């Protein structure tokens, strides 16, 4: 077996970045994707989110492979959440400190940039190759192509083939593979706020817009063409407002006029788009082990998460970063060791971010509309200003640092307990500026030490 | 679509019993199984447990289809657990009241009896038919046979094809299918205590023998040929005693002599069997929904559980019983309604028994060796004697009644809390017979009412 021949399944964002890393390691890299080459046969990405929020962990990897400057022009910084209430009023909640932003980026062009960089470095991308089986004892993949079915030896296999991974499907039939796939009760639908007639953004482009409505919400992210991609998250069924109960123009209009009127005024194509676009489901996937022989799962294939922390892609990019660092450390002839170290280190972190993503849905659709929540964020921001090393808000640890997600999660839980006590003061709204901030830090330090 | 043409996947215990029920309903029934017909081609059931414990829920179904008297001769009653300590001493803990027993039965002959009864009633069993795909929108199954691959229309499909169900695999690719498969850290290996040289049972045949050793255990169930089938449960790896560390005769001998010496003296073929038989894994499977169009999962296919409550088969038989009762109620033209009612009613119960089976492992391998545990069982038995309707021990609710598993689970948790308080008395060992039993019942009744 030639350990320097690497097969990557999936030419998406994660598969392409991993191919770049491995080419930079001087390895032979072949990538296989079931979809056609979008440059030759454009196709509709039905049911996949178009916009993503690129943040620190993602940028760190892109910088390492020398792509930061090429990606920046595709990305629009969002410095905070702009929360829209039912009467059209808005509140801005910064994500972090001054200049800290997450970046709105569209999947299509970004993916193409990464895939072309992989090709430029010598990776071969084979499109319209569907992996239908993997034989782990012989490290052999069965592909289905237009020309028929064939088998290929693959000494090292990296499955970056997403939430519906073929490699994982094959692993699931192996003994002692633990696996969980869980759909949440909500689905989503993508909609658009186009540029104005003057060709301008219809709202502030440097924010992630949210219309939180308790059990459901609408969000909007800016695009370089001055449109916004909106995503409507509703329960599938069983609620007053749910996908099941929107069946015609009049149902749709009444929901949008009632709950999202300011957005509605900016959506001339709402009715057409709503009934044309698919209603997609949201899945959380956890599994273990990620490794079977010389095959490993990466990104969504091993830990698909719901999108509410904006970390799916960033976490997948960090997977590539960490796997690459183990290759630096142990070389190219110790895949067993590299893969084993990687999965042992990484699993607690991906479990934590999957959990955080689930928990953040309630924050986005509900808490952000609560004045107490906004005040809480203010107090935390001030703590962070005064004691930048001793109090880093959870959102910042996840989004603007590369601290392990599990560590961030644990510290976040401590912060939450401390802040619950702070917020329990009935006069907090009046007194928040006069709090004994040093005392809060001391309580936190004591809690950490326990 | 002909709604009276039923296709059952799997000719195992559950598939065969379901075929019997449906034939008695006057429906057309075709059964498909990937294995060969054991009557023509005997094969080795590697990795499947040979012995099961048939109890009330199982008998109830067999009685309903008129098979109780035919099955009885295959079954050996076990009235309690016989616990073996490390010095060869034994303690008997009854399962229930006088004459209440669970019945040791071997898979092979029992399965054959059920399959032949299904055939006698007119069901057609097609062996060596592997289901490789199911198209739910067209209700079409793809089978792989020796003669090649073919497709068959199947208006109603019942997947009784076990923990590694093909029907479930197909469902897993459908949207919004929630699924979890979890392997526990222990595996098992089957061994034998043969009949004595005089052709007698080597131990009391009317008990389930247990050698509880904390983190691991050995059990033995009697067979009609006067042998016992033993099952050794050990962690796969990472413990002082585990499968990974038993690599030769001397490792094996030292474990058995040290921990199971009385059993070891009765196992002349231990070494040969140990290294010949596979080490099998133990899986827990939960999923939902069980229904997709006119297809439904039944038994292990929808809720495979670890074997420690002896309920896997009994629960599967009860699935058949309940599904049949909905057919009685709603007729043969309302499969949507029958399937929907079934899954809604049944899911909380199968979740509860999966959980109980997991929890009972600790009881079997550890608690039963504790004198306090035995005393606790005695007190509960006395409560049951004095107040037969107000205090039914959890084990009896599960094993000797047909109360819903979820209800039994909930009552069991209340009993546990009450008994924890009773057992907290430091003089309980001396005073247990003089307790105010009526007061205990009153506490329990109050807890139930809350």
Automatic annotation (TrEMBL), chains A, B:
<keyword id="KW-0560">Oxidoreductase</keyword>
<keyword id="KW-0274">FAD</keyword>
<dbReference type="Pfam" id="PF01494">
    <property type="entry name" value="FAD_binding_3"/>
</dbReference>
<keyword id="KW-0662">Pyridine nucleotide biosynthesis</keyword>
<dbReference type="InterPro" id="IPR002938">
    <property type="entry name" value="FAD-bd"/>
</dbReference>
<keyword id="KW-0521">NADP</keyword>
<dbReference type="GO" id="GO:0070189">
    <property type="term" value="P:kynurenine metabolic process"/>
</dbReference>
<comment type="similarity">
    <text>Belongs to the aromatic-ring hydroxylase family. KMO subfamily.</text>
</comment>
<keyword id="KW-0503">Monooxygenase</keyword>
<dbReference type="GO" id="GO:0009435">
    <property type="term" value="P:NAD+ biosynthetic process"/>
</dbReference>
<dbReference type="GO" id="GO:0071949">
    <property type="term" value="F:FAD binding"/>
</dbReference>
<dbReference type="InterPro" id="IPR027545">
    <property type="entry name" value="Kynurenine_monooxygenase"/>
</dbReference>
<dbReference type="GO" id="GO:0004502">
    <property type="term" value="F:kynurenine 3-monooxygenase activity"/>
</dbReference>
<dbReference type="InterPro" id="IPR036188">
    <property type="entry name" value="FAD/NAD-bd_sf"/>
</dbReference>
<dbReference type="GO" id="GO:0006569">
    <property type="term" value="P:L-tryptophan catabolic process"/>
</dbReference>
<dbReference type="GO" id="GO:0019805">
    <property type="term" value="P:quinolinate biosynthetic process"/>
</dbReference>
<comment type="function">
    <text>Catalyzes the hydroxylation of L-kynurenine (L-Kyn) to form 3-hydroxy-L-kynurenine (L-3OHKyn). Required for synthesis of quinolinic acid.</text>
</comment>
<protein>
    <recommendedName>
        <fullName>Kynurenine 3-monooxygenase</fullName>
        <ecNumber>1.14.13.9</ecNumber>
    </recommendedName>
</protein>
<keyword id="KW-0285">Flavoprotein</keyword>
<comment type="pathway">
    <text>Cofactor biosynthesis; NAD(+) biosynthesis; quinolinate from L-kynurenine: step 1/3.</text>
</comment>
<dbReference type="GO" id="GO:0043420">
    <property type="term" value="P:anthranilate metabolic process"/>
</dbReference>
<feature type="domain" description="FAD-binding">
    <location>
        <begin position="5"/>
        <end position="327"/>
    </location>
</feature>
């Amino acid at each position: 077996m030639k350990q320097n021949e690497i097969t990557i399944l999936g030419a998406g964002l994660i598969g392409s970045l991993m191919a770049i890393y491995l080419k930079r390691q001087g390895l032979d890299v072949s990538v296989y994707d079931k979809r056609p080459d979008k440059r030759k046969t454009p196709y509709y990405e039905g049911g996949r989110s178009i916009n993503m929020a690129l943040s620190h962990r993602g940028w760190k990897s892109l910088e390492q492979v020398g792509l930061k400057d090429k990606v920046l022009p595709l990305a629009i910084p969002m410095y905070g959440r702009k929360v829209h209430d039912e009467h059209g009023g808005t509140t801005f909640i910064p994500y972090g400190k001054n200049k800290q932003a997450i970046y709105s980026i569209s999947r299509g062009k970004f993916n193409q940039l990464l895939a072309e960089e992989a090709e430029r470095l010598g990776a071969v991308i084979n499109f319209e190759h569907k992996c239908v089986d993997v034989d782990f004892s012989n490290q052999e993949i069965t592909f289905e192509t237009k020309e028929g079915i064939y088998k290929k030896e693959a000494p090292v296999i990296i499955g970056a083939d997403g939430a519906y991974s073929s490699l994982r499907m094959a692993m699931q039939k192996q003994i002692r593979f633990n696996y969980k796939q869980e759909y949440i009760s909500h689905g989503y639908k993508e909609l658009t706020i186009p540029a104005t007639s003057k060709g301008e953004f219809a709202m502030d482009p440097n924010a992630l817009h949210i219309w939180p409505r308790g059990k459901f919400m609408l969000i909007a992210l800016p695009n370089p063409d001055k449109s916004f991609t909106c995503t409507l998250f509703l329960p599938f069924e069983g609620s007053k407002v749910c996908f099941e109960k929107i069946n015609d123009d009049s149902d749709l209009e009444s929901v949008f006029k009632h709950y999202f009127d300011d957005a509605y005024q900016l959506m001339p194509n709402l009715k057409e788009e709503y009934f044309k676009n698919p209603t997609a489901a949201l899945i959380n996937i956890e599994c273990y082990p990620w490794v079977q022989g010389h095959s490993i799962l990466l990104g969504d294939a091993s830990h698909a998460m719901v999108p509410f922390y904006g970390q799916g892609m960033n976490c997948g990019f960090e997977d590539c970063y960490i796997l690459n660092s183990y290759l630096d450390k142990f070389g190219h002839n110790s895949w067993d060791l590299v893969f084993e170290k990687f999965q042992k280190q990484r699993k607690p972190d991906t479990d934590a971010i999957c959990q955080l993503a689930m928990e953040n849905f309630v924050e986005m659709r509900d808490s952000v509309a609560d004045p107490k929540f906004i005040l809480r964020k203010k107090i935390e921001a001030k703590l962070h200003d005064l004691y930048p090393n001793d109090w880093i808000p959870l959102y910042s640890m996840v989004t603007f640092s590369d601290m392990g997600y599990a560590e961030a999660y644990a510290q976040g839980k401590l912060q939450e307990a401390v802040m619950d006590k702070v917020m329990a003061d009935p006069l907090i709204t009046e007194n928040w500026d006069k709090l004994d901030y040093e005392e809060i830090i001391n309580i936190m330090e004591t809690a950490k030490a326990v």
